[in-house]
Structures are given as structure tokens and as C-alpha cells.
Amino acid sequence: MIRTATRTAARTALAALAAALLATAADAQTANKWGAIAFGGPDRKAGTAVDYPSASEARQAALDACGGACPQTIVFVANCAAVAENPSGASGWAKNRWRDRARSRALSACAQRGPACTVTAWACTTH
């Protein structure tokens, strides 16, 4: 009876350890998934980049995708982000795990600065 209880406890401990190791491995895989959005260019042009190993590489890739015409950038890791702008140049941005929430929050942030906002860019890294 004692041996059975000891084996059960050992199996439970091993299962918990295995679960923790798998979770750590999954976190490590997404921890370095950086993304960026470059925005604020003429005609509301934007550039996006996802799943880069560093913030600086993601930022540069987004700027390159915008053709160097975007003066503002946002950087995010293991997340989604969105930018909303209006025709007069007001903008808002947001980050969230879920794409649609990032988009709606970016629209809300932009609307606080002016009317007629639309989402001009969004991107999600692996997460």
C-alpha cells in the first residue's frame, strides 16, 4: 500500500515537472517573436513586421516595409498591435493578445483625437 502511494506521488511529481518544462519551452519559443508597425507616412502609409528575434530588427523591417516614409513606430512582443489614423493625421494605437481587441482599442484611441478614424495597419506575432 505504501509503495503504491509512493509511486503515485512520484508519477504526479514527474507529470507536474514535465508540464512545467513544456510551458517553459513554449514561452521561450514565443518570447523572441518581436513585431513592429511603422506608420504616420503620407497617405496613411504603413509597414509591418512580425516574428523577428529582436525589437530593433522588427522596427527596422517595419520601416523598410514603409519605404522609409513613416516617422512613428510601435514595437511589441508575443502580441498583436494595431494603428488607426484619420485623414487629418490624428492617430491611436493599441496592443492586445487578440487582433480584434487591438484594432477596436486603436480606433477608440484615435477617435479621442479626431473623427473619421480607420485602421491603417495591424499585425500579430506568433504567441
Radius of gyration: 21 Å
- N- and C-termini, Cα separation: 45 Å
Low-confidence parts, pLDDT < 50 over ≥5 residues? 21-28
Give the H and E element order. Answer: HEEHEEEHE
Class from helix and strand fractions: alpha+beta
Shape, per Cα inertia axes: elongated
Overall mean pLDDT: 86
Strand content: 25-35%
- Please describe the biggest sheet, giving its number of strands, its sense, and whether it closes into a barrel: 3 strands, antiparallel
Give the number of DSSP strands. 6
Helix content: 40-55%
Number of helices: 3
Largest beta sheet: strand ordering: 2-1-3
**Number of spatially distinct domains:** 2
Overview of this protein structure:
A three-stranded antiparallel sheet has the order 2-1-3, covered by helices on one side. A three-stranded antiparallel sheet has the order 5-4-6, covered by helices on one side. With 127 residues, the chain is of the alpha+beta class. The protein folds into two domains: 1-31; 32-124, no CATH class. It has helices at 2-31, 55-65, 99-111; strands spanning 34-39, 47-52, 72-77, 80-85, 91-96, 118-124. It is built from three helices and six strands; from the N terminus they run H-E-E-H-E-E-E-H-E. Mean pLDDT is 86; it is low at 21-28. It starts with a helix and ends with a strand.
